[in-house]
Design brief:
Length: 232
């Protein structure tokens, strides 16, 4: 979870993220600052619920650097990706393990698992516990039709840098508060591990049947991520 506030006791967790190394979290570019609370100040790892993070401050780490993608220029929706560097190394355990990242060789992305602590319904309340939902990939043609050219997406849907997922028959979606969190698939090579293929970016009114949300395509940004997290 990505937190905003001056002290650990006052934190509000408004976005998600994925641990990718002992000191770096992957999140969305639009999550780096809250209009009311300012920039990200802390991250909580290994927490299943908001209460976990509040009760056990050893899960909470101060953020030292916020690094947005150099081509992320809000309110434009492209390149909605960022990295957070913590002051101290994060203690890894059986419950806190860096995620694998898709480098462009993932072929089983027709169905993904999205996770987060966001709203559980359109105009609903936020979740205290981590939620998960299975989403289905929409075709490039479907995504382009749902997300045509407009002032914040001047080229419309970008299949190179974006993905779109939802459900054509039932109400399943990510929602406000899930931004920055991962969509992931089972790793074919490592048992009980998942590969992050996308970062939750934005959508229309969440939970509408047949409506697809937009996710930043991780594979497109691997060179940028590696240049910061693993420069050598």
């Amino acid at each position: 979870m990505v937190g905003y506030g001056d002290t650990i006791e006052d934190l509000q967790y408004l976005c998600g993220g994925s641990l990718i190394s002992e000191k770096f979290i992957l999140t969305a570019g639009h999550c780096i600052s809250s209009r009311d609370l300012g920039p990200i100040t802390y991250v909580a790892v290994g927490a299943i619920s908001r209460d976990d993070a509040a009760a056990d401050t050893s899960k909470v780490y101060k953020v030292k650097n916020i690094i947005k993608h150099p081509e992320y220029r809000p309110p434009n929706k492209y390149n909605d990706i960022a990295l957070l560097e913590t002051e101290k190394e994060i203690n890894l355990s059986q419950f806190v393990v860096p995620a694998c990242l898709d480098v462009g060789d993932t072929t089983n992305d027709g169905k993904v698992l999205a996770t987060g602590w966001g709203l559980t319904a359109y105009r609903g309340g936020i979740s205290n516990r981590l939620q998960k939902v299975t989403l289905h990939k929409f075709t490039t043609e479907e995504c382009s039709a749902q997300w045509p050219t407009h002032r914040n997406m001047k080229q419309g849907f970008s299949p190179q840098s974006q993905m779109c997922y939802g459900d054509r028959t039932v109400s399943k979606d990510t929602c406000q508060g899930d931004s920055g969190g991962p969509i992931q698939v089972k790793n074919k090579k490592i048992n009980c591990m998942y590969t992050v293929v996308g970062v939750t970016s934005f959508g229309s009114a969440c939970g509408f049947v047949g409506s697809a949300g937009i996710y930043t395509r991780v594979a497109n940004y691997i060179p940028w991520i590696e240049s910061i997290v693993w420069p050598n």
